[in-house]
Amino acid sequence: MKLELSRVVQGTIRVGVLKGLGKTGQQSLEVPACLLYTPFGTMPHLTQDTLHTLGNLPPVAQVTLSSIAEHHEVLEDFKDGFRKFSGLHDSVLYCSLHDPASPTPTGYTTNKTVSVWGCGGRIELTVNKFMALLKAVQPDWYQSMADGETWQNDTSRKRVRKSVDRTLGHLDECLLLHQKSQELEGVEVFGVVEGGDILEERLRSARETAKRPVAGFCLDGFQSGSMDQTLRTQLITAVAKELPEDKPRLLQGVGQPDEVLACVEAGVDLFESHFPFQVTERGCALSFSFDISSDPELAGRAPPSVLELNEKKDTAGGTLHNGEQDNLKTQKTPFEINLNDNRFKDDFRPLVEGCGCYCCTNHQRAYLHHLLVTNELLAGVLLMIHNTSHYHGFFEALRKALASDKLDLLKRRVLERGGRTETKGLRPIGRDSRGIDVACPSKVSLEVSSN
């Protein structure tokens, strides 16, 4: 696996191709990109046949150990890996630790173990059990075991430091066992960058992880709602400077279009695609625009900064404390319409005018409203088709915008549906060695000594 960059826009935005994917090394993925959300080996609500009627899907499918850990013995007996077991024959398989669409209870991590939560409850994993499970799954690349329980904004500095130390220790053990395993020969490892909202710990984690023989990096602890969007972007920008340019950076738990744009500007290459599923589960349809055709009315108008879209949206309410992550998946965002609303009962327009997906071509908003209020399973199927198509279309538009120097226009299109607030004065960029918030002006250069 190697990332070949064709352009670097505005000094931080990376455009290129991730090559050498899969067992044969013949598959590739243009970046910025998102993965295919298949936690159980299939996209929720859709059969494989239905899924592949959608165009321009990424070749990389994400499965989660939290979803399949309880089937460890079955996969060992099957012997041919999870790709064949689930019918993902032509997909590149990436295995993550947790399901980004499901909240993970905290307080169950120890020095030697992490816990994942499947349908049957909690499963405690040591490094040996973690690696044994990966041998049965046989992915193309996987996230190393990590202590990621520091996303709450009230986490102490001591706990954050311990998280970084544990994660680095887990990575070293995973790499050692990986090298001894014939079953994992040719499989790539992504190291995990932790550090909560403390700048020094983020940089230490990034520097130390980059010293290990990993193929790429997972940036953890930046989940939607876990921290202020400005703070997230500034921390990612600082972390990205410590990582090698030829290795991909995968951001976990972030999927809203405004957040994606901000994080791409900070140097992120890959995203998970759980957001369309969360929108579907709310009975909503993605409806934001990403048309980058020229518009003379908007020509010359200064683009809004992505960083100005902080808290004033339907998901507003500040950053999350422990236990509040459950509410995030039910909160409507400005990028969707809620088809449960009674005003759609006689709305005979498609979900999005001009959308070419099966749902918008064949059905109306009123029909989707009817399916939802009568609890028909077809509602989830049609919404998932549309939301998946719309979301992956957004990423395709993002790559085209970067190639044609139209990122500012794309930002205007995407952000015009959301509320926006002007942020003034000083903004926190993390916490110092005493655990006190460090503030800086809105335009900040993060320069930290390597000592």
Search tags:
451 residues; alpha/beta; nine-stranded parallel beta sheet; three-stranded antiparallel beta sheet; 18 strands; disordered C terminus
Shape: globular
User: How much helical structure, as a percent, in the residues?
Assistant: 25-40%
Rounded to an integer, what's the Rg over CA atoms? Answer: 21 Å
pLDDT < 50 stretches: 295-326, 419-428, 439-451
Strand content: 15-25%
Whole-Å distance between the termini?
Answer: 32 Å
Q: How can the largest sheet be summarized?
A: 9 strands, parallel
User: What is the tally of helical segments?
Assistant: 14
Strand order of the largest sheet: 4-14-13-12-11-10-7-6-5
User: How many extended strands?
Assistant: 18
Query: Which structural category do the helix and sheet elements fall into?
Result: alpha/beta
Average pLDDT score: 86
Provide an overview of this structure:
The chain is α/β, with parallel strands linked by helices and 451 residues long. It is 32% helix and 18% strand. It has helices at residues 48-51, 65-68, 72-78, 81-86, 127-137, 157-180, 199-210, 229-240, 257-266, 275-281, 358-362, 365-373, 378-403, 407-415, and strands spanning 2-9, 13-21, 27-31, 33-34, 36-37, 60-64, 92-96, 113-118, 121-126, 141-143, 188-193, 216-219, 249-251, 270-271, 284-286, 336-338, 427-431, 437-440. The strands form five sheets. A nine-stranded parallel beta sheet has the order 4-14-13-12-11-10-7-6-5. A three-stranded antiparallel beta sheet has the order 1-2-3. Strand 17 (427-431) and strand 18 form a beta hairpin. It is globular and about 60 Å long. The two termini are 32 Å apart. The model is unreliable at 295-326, 419-428 and 439-451 (pLDDT under 50).
